[in-house]
Design a protein that fits this description.
By secondary structure, the protein is an all-alpha fold. The protein is built from ten helices and no strands. Helix 7 runs antiparallel to helix 9. It is globular and about 65 Å long. InterPro entries: DctM, TRAP_DctM. GO terms for molecular function: transmembrane transporter activity.
Length: 204
């Protein structure tokens, strides 16, 4: 199954989003005809449970986007991002403040929404500090992932809790060690940009 999905995406047969539907169809076929653990009479129940899980996740993401919309309407991210550029002329200090800021934003806003809002503001500031834009993209990407798994909002936590059927409190306790390691990786990538830039430098 993984080989079919990966090859399908690479060859352009279907998109990454469509691959999820292909995976579901393959799972049903394999479950019924090969493993024989799934019966035709079970399919309606599977669809209902999937719909309930999807509805829960969709509502959580909708509320996160709504909160992000309120922040955007009040121009809070824009004001804070512009303020960061005036704090210090030292790029190392700016990167530290940028990481803290992005982690806080990621806790309360959806990743795509925060990227759409903040990248146009942060790019000119990064250029002012002579920070490579690929390096900036790596920093923003890692911060977005960490923020989505960090309380109090952490949309990724709610999604994982709903899909896995695990209590949120229990999930948070298990996530903390991984978050700690992720933060260490974040600061290594932040202050050693060659880690991010060496592959692009090969093809440039």
């Amino acid at each position: 199954m993984p080989a079919v999905i990966i090859l399908g995406i690479i060859l352009g047969i279907f998109t990454a989003t469509e691959s999820a539907a292909i995976a579901c169809a393959l799972a049903i076929i394999v479950g019924i005809f090969f493993y024989r653990e799934l019966k035709f009479k079970d399919i309606p129940t599977v669809f209902i449970n999937t719909a309930l899980s999807t509805a829960t996740v969709t509502m959580l993401l909708a509320m996160a986007n709504l909160f992000g919309l309120v922040l955007t309407f009040e121009r809070i991210p824009q004001v804070l991002a512009a303020w960061m550029g005036t704090i210090s002329e030292n790029p190392l200090i700016f990167l530290l403040i940028l990481n803290i800021f992005l982690l806080l934003v990621g806790m309360v806003m959806d990743g795509i929404a925060s990227i759409d809002i903040l990248v146009p503001i942060l790019v000119p500031i990064a250029k002012m500090f002579e920070i490579d834009l690929i390096h900036l993209g790596g920093i923003i990407g890692i911060n977005t992932v960490i923020g989505s798994l960090t309380p109090p909002v952490g949309a990724g936590l709610f999604v994982a809790s709903s899909v896995g059927g695990v209590k949120l409190e229990s999930l948070i306790k298990q996530v903390w060690p991984f978050l700690g390691v992720s933060v260490i990786v974040l600061f290594i990538v932040t202050y050693f940009p060659a880690i991010v830039l060496w592959i692009p430098s090969i093809f440039s």
